[in-house]
Amino acid sequence: MISDKILKRVSKPGRYIGGEYGQILKDKNDIKCRWAFCFPDTYEIGMSNLGMRILYGSLNSQPDIWCERCYTPWEDMQKEMKENNVPLWALESGDPLCNFDIVAFTLQYELCYTNVLTMLDLAGIPLMADERDENCPIIIGGGPCAYNAEPVADFFDIFSIGEGEEALCELSRLYINMKDNGSYSRKSFLHEAAKLEGFYVPSLYGVSYNGDGTIKEYKPLYDDIPTRIKKRIVKDMDKAYFPEKVVMPYIETVHDRIMLEVCRGCYRGCRFCQAGNLFRPVRRKSANTLNEQAKTLFKNCGYDEISLTSLSISDYPYLETLCDELLCWTEDKKIGLSLPSLRIDSFSKELMERISSVRSSGLTFAPEAGTQRLRNVINKGVCEEDLMNAAKIAYNGGKSSVKLYFMMGLPTEQLEDLEGIAQMAEHVIDAYYQNPDRKKGSRPPQVTISVASFIPKPFTPFQWEAQDKLQVLLDKQKYLGSKITNRKIKYNWHEAKVSHLEAVFARGNRRLSKAILEAHKRGLMFDSWDEYFNYEKWMQIFADCGIDPEFYANREYAEDEILPWDIIDIGVTKEFLLREKKAAYAERVTPNCVEKCSGCGANKLGGENSCCPKA
Amino acid sequence: MLPQSVRIKFQKINVLKFISHLDLCRTMKTALLRAGIPVWYTEGFNPHPKMVFSLPLSIGTESECEYMDIKITEEMSFDEIKQRLSDALTADMAILDVYAPEMKFQEIGYATYEITPYASYDLSPLSKDEVNITKRTKKGEATVNVKDRIVSVSENEGKIYMILSADTERFVNPEHLLALCKSEDHRIVRKEVYTRNMKIFR
Ligand code: SF4
User: Fold this and answer.
1) Which chain A residues are closer than 8 Å to B184 by Cβ?
2) Judgement on whether residues A401 and A482 belong to the same structural domain of the protein
3) A593 lines ligand 1 (CB under 6 A)
4) For labelling, which of A476, B13, B51, B60 has a CA lying 20 to 30 Å from the CA of A444?
């Protein structure tokens, strides 16, 4: 626990006080397995993460397990902690992390890796897995980046692959049983954990490399552990654990609202999208379950906004029913409904008006590419007409702000595809003036286009692709800027240097851990924050470690190459991804999963209320 | 008669000294909603529960006498409001009393503070003829002599007690006085609020 004297000196002390309404306190004497669940970023960001809310609740639903929270302290606090010898602590009990049984990190984005080391360091836990002794907590990683966590494999004892709400309780059970019957040792526990479905113990798999730096082989050290680790899924979302309570932060966080998880997975097979593949098969909650859960959440937290979350909300087949049921009681209570990534075209006008009646937000649309040809390549199933329809409905409803999301550097991209981005934005503005039904007195549209750089991600049909070199991306950004002349169009782009570093880690192997360790030693942290991100330092570190970042980011991986993440089985097969890659180059669209199953393989994992054929 | 005004007296102690006024507003708003209090909303484009707070409380200072006024649109007894709201908050923000307001916030004149010093300090600067405090304002720094806003400063059993002006124009932050006294580590708790006529505020 931290003293008031220190808290008075640091910025945003509210990050460190805990004690929120809804936090879970337990009597240590009843507990056999203590978890410190870490989000390697600030409190405000971590507290907004739905996955962490779910896992915190599900672990704490077990009477003999106590899960607490921990976030990365800001740099001023880190300094105070070091000067005053305060080791990193968990918010609920105030106990130092080194006293816990299990310390878990959720890895949501690649640029949090240095923060993981920062936190381990502040906790006084050895950074390298092979330096930890019997007294050290077991360090576990999970979340989207765990699907290719090879760059940080040397720092972790175990990775949890897939959805954790059931798996983490099982792992705790194994821990408790082994402690109870006296068979526990760090080594024997890791060996047993590796036999549980969905757990990858990197130290039990030896990696050898070819002369050119590609991978030669992954070899399990024991015969009784799987050669590939199969991801875990929750089969039935209606029956899945659902956190009825939320820890209510005192200070403002990124998402101060109810997050209602409508479904997992996505029917659409956008070929650049990692989440769309990682979370297959699609599993939906019923409208009835969701409505009840929303009511419970409102009663327990009092947020006046409900956000329906899903990768592609408008594909949820019971959306109208759900919204109708929700609006029955939310309108009265002045609770706003918000739908992210909304495709308004699939919506009735009345419904849209009722949703916007409480809180207004503009139209967002993600065509991702500027021409139909390139949209076919990436399998983005929208056409310009969809966008124009959506814009029209938005204008009729009096909305004037339109946000468009694109990507540049996609495979097969030509200059005309970039020009297409500018043209689409123009057409959206033209549509306003050509629309006689637009709401009287409404403001002329303001179109914002945000352009990200393509990052080849594991487990996508584009996993083999090379990312454009940095200079090429920068030139393309400039080129597009020169094509945008209309003052009603605002042009934002992501920092290409950030995307480059992300690409290095996304497709990285274990050799990168050396660079991450070195980056930590040189004081790098909070890489996802503009004020901390330092590309030049990273490039220097790679050079000093003898690592060529372009080998990972800008190289086309061979189709027959053993990929660092081949050891993980997400359900979707490599054959399917390869088929999709070929289809991309043939500019051929693959129908979405509702229209027709394309045999991606994810159905073998099972799942209720899904669109997949039974395996 | 509805809507009816309701005054809620609550504390803000321990770690909650580190949350700002804005955080407090947000916390109270969600607490009112999860407690199911039929709170009156402001009209307008972005309706929100109407809440009015008594005095500013600087970050770092605790209080056992914070007040918030709301209006309710349906009958609900004060006891029930107190019970429901208490259940919707943690003990550090316990609800102390709920009643119909008897005085206006504008009548507030003074507040008392209990200070527990944890390190050395020297109260003598407060007994000088001039007690100058430098305030940071939007226009820059301004020095104000607050001598006539300090009603009393006393010591008893290792604690310091202060009665200070608390009306909007003449508000004195005890933290500023303690800075003059070179006290670097202490706990400050606001204990009671009084009117200009030194009646306990209700
Ligand atoms: S198994 Fe078929 S329906 Fe299911 S996710 Fe894969 S392609 Fe889609």
Assistant:
1) 5
2) yes
3) yes
4) A476
Q: What is the pLDDT of residue A346?
A: 53
Please tell me the total count of domains within chain A.
Answer: 2
Is A333 close to B32, i.e. CB distance below 8 A? no
Phi–psi pair at A340, nearest 5 degrees? -75, 165
Give the other-Cβ count within 10 Å of A93's Cβ. 18
A80 in any annotated domain: yes
Q: What pLDDT, on the 0 to 100 scale, is given for residue A365?
A: 82
Q: What is the pLDDT of residues A496-507, one digit of tens each?
A: 999 999 999 999
Residues A39, A179, single domain; the answer is: yes
Secondary structure E strands in A179-245: 199-200, 205-209, 215-220, 229-230
The complex scores an ipTM of 0.91
A334–B contact, CB cutoff 8 A: yes
Burial of A375 (0-12, 13-18, 19+ CB in 10 A): buried
Looking at the structure, do residues A120 and A266 belong to the same domain, yes or no?
A: no
Tell how far the Cα of B114 is from the centroid of ligand 1, in angstroms: 67
How far apart are the CA of A605 and the centre of ligand 1, in A? Answer: 11
In CATH, which of 1.10.1140.10, 3.40.50.360, 3.20.20.70, 3.30.70.580 is domain B4-101?
3.30.70.580
Place of tokens 């329906």: A308
Q: For A90-104, A169-183, A236-250, which range has the lowest pLDDT when averaged over its residues?
A: A236-250
Do A309 and A212 lie in one domain? The reply is no
Give residue for tokens 């495979």: A411
